[in-house]
Each structure stands twice: as C-alpha cells, then as structure tokens.
Amino acid sequence: MRLWPLLLALLATPALGQEVDLELVLLADASGSIDQSEIDLQRQGYAQAITHPDVLSAIASTLTGSIAVTYVEWAANQAVVADWTIIATPEDAEAFAASLLVPPRLASGRNAIGAALLEGKRLIEGNDIIGLRRVIDFSGDSANNWSGPSIEEAREAVLAAGITINALPLIRSPAGGGDTPLVEIYEDRIIGGPGAFLVPADTGARFTEAVRRKLILEIAGSQPDAASLPTAAP
C-alpha cells in the first residue's frame, strides 16, 4: 500500500519541455475568513471537477490534447498544494485530484492578493512547460489586500507578461448571484487579459458545479454567456 503515494507522485510529474494547450494556476483562497470546511470544499470541488467526464472531454478536444495545472493556496503566504501536473488522460486527472486531498492546510493569515497574483506569474514563468495559453484562476471571498504589492501593481505585471487572470468570487449566499458587489469588484480590479471572465460560486453544494463549468470554459478558451455573467475586455 505504501507504493500507492509514490505511484501518484510519479504520475503527477510533468514532462520537461512538453507543450500543452493551457498552463493553469489555480489560486485558492485560504485566508483567515476561510474555515477548514471551506478549504476542504474547495479542494474536493476541484478534485471532483478535474476528473469529470465533461472536463476530460474538453481537455481531449484541445489542440494538444493536454493541459498543465497546479493548485496553490494563498493568504498572507502562498503554498503549492499540488505541483504542476500535465493532464492528458483520466489517470493523470485522478493523480492530480488525489494529490489535492493529502496535504494539510498550508496557507494562513490575512489577504495578500497582489502577492498571490505575482506568485501565480512566477510559477508559470518558472516551469519547463510550454503552454499555448497561460491563465491564473483566482478565487477569493473579498478584495482586501493587507500586505505586499498592491492588486493594481500585480495585475499590471501579470497582464504585461501575457497571462490572463480569471476569477471565482466566493459568494456567501445560496443564490451566488452575479450582481453582488464582490462580483463587480472582481470584474473591475482582478480579471483581465484576452478572454478573461469570472464565474461566481457559492460556498455550498453548487460549488463543484461552478468550478466544473469554469474549468470547461478555460480549457476550451471560451467565455460564459454575456447575458448571464459579467466578462472583461482584454
């Protein structure tokens, strides 16, 4: 049984210099306003979404038939929960999903959104994977920035590097509506770059559904219906 974690680690190791359709950094909120149940909800939601047949079909339909993804929790610090993994098969997705559920909570403290965005940029620029598209997907339940670089400074640097920022604002209501102040703030201050968009998600049973929808759109290089969700110009 001890061989199983080693096998998962080997399956989740990216091939150096491999070309993929999309490099995707998942920046998940782990600040003080996020309790352990919400940490678990986010990790489990992404684990279930990345292994869903619709997401796997979207990956298979890309130009290269593969994407590269890493999962990072952010707060006052940033910590990689699941390292860069190239996903081209259901087995790849299962290995990545399994790696999400093992580590304990790794980030804590107050919001440092600017630092988190710059960490996403560093992770993309510092890997040995060649992505035809590069995206940071930022999730959070506020737009406070208590330390480190400003959101505006970090966002400008990320966009100047040709990296798109999408967002998953966490709405603490059953409706998870698209007209909340947080959604408007994220549209104005967080997202940007070619094809940028956001998908609001409540912190309840529909979280996984929202994550799955967002992943499919990102993998396909599409945007939500303009009639139902806000989008941002490049």
Describe the structure.
This protein is α/β, with parallel strands linked by helices and 234 residues long. The chain has 8 helices and 6 strands. The protein has a 6-stranded mixed β-sheet, with helices on both faces. Helix 6 (151-160) links the parallel strand 4 (130-140) and strand 5.
What labels describe this entry?
single chain; 234 residues; alpha/beta; Rossmann fold; six-stranded mixed β-sheet; 8 helices; globular; disordered N terminus; disordered C terminus
Counted up, domains total 1
Strand content: 15-25%
Largest sheet: 6 strands, mixed
Number of helices: 8
Going by helix content, strand content and strand pairing, the class is alpha/beta
Question: If you consult CATH, what is the topology?
Answer: Rossmann fold
Q: Provide the CATH superfamily.
A: von Willebrand factor, type A domain
Short description:
By secondary structure, this protein is an alpha/beta fold.
Layout of strands and helices, then pairs:
Elements: H1 3-11, E1 19-29, H2 36-50, H3 53-60, E2 67-74, E3 78-87, H4 90-100, H5 113-126, E4 130-140, H6 151-160, E5 164-171, H7 181-189, E6 201-202, H8 207-220
Parallel strand pairs: 1-2, 1-4, 4-5, 5-6
Antiparallel strand pairs: 2-3
